[in-house]
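Form 7-S
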Amino acid sequence: MEIIDPHLHLFDLEQGNYDWLKPENPPAWPDKDQIRKNYSESDLNLPDRMTLAGFVHIEAGFDNEQPWRELKWLAENCTLPYRSVAFADLTSKRFKQQLQHLLKYESLVGIRYILDDQALAFFDNKTCLTNLQLLQQQGLIFEAQFSLEDQNAVTKFTEILEQTPDLKVVINHAGLPSSLSQEWMDSITALAHHPHCYVKCSGWEMPERKWTVESVKPYINFIIRQFGLPRVMLASNFPVSELSCSYTELWQRYSKEMKLKGFEKELLLHDTAQQLYGL
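Output:
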C-alpha cells in the first residue's frame, strides 16, 4: 500500500536555526533533547508492504527571517515526491515580500504560522486578514495550528473564512484537543461547514507520550463524522512523533489497529493528501 505523509519535518542542525529545539526555549519538554539531531528521508522507514509515495514537509523553524532557505535545502536534499509548507510572518507588512521569495520554489503549497495562545489576537489583526486574502489569491493553503478549545478564536476564524471563501485551510494536529470537550467538538462542527477546510490527525504525542489508538480513535471518528472522509488525513508529525513510537510503529497503528476498511485507508492515508497537496 502506498501512503502519503502530509505532516512531517526534516532537520539539518548545521544549516538551520531551529530555535525551538534549544533547551532554553519553549516548548519545555524534558525529553526534547531526544529529537535534537538531524533527520532525513532515510529515517522514514515504513512497515512491510507499505511504501512512502510522497510527503508534505512542514516548516520547522529552519530560518524564520529567510524562510526560503529551508525550501532551497529541501530541493537539494529530497529525492521522494514532496511538497513544502513554509513559514512566513502573517502578522507582518513584509509578508508579501517573503511570499514572493517563497513562490520561486515549485514545492511551495502553503504557509504555516503557529498561532497557539495568540490565535484570537491573530484573527483580530487586519494585516493578517489582508495576508490570508493574498494566500487565497495565490491558491495557497493556510495551515492553522491552534487549540480549537479556544472558542473565541474559532468564532473569529469562521468570520474570516466567510470573507475568504476560496481559501484552503488545514487544521493541524486535530485542533490540539486536551480532551473530548464540548468546546472542541463544537469547534470541529462549526469548521466542518466550510467546504475548503480540512483536518490533519496527528500530534498525539505532544499532550500524551503514551498515546494509543484506542485513546485517539474518539477524536478521529468524531472528525470524520463531521468533515467526511475526503477532508480528513492521518499524519505523523515526525520526528516529534518519535517521542512516543518509531515511524514504522506509528503507521502500523494507523493501518492495522484503526481497523479501517480499504476505501477508508486509501482516503485517510493517501488519496486526500495527494489531491489536496498536488502530489
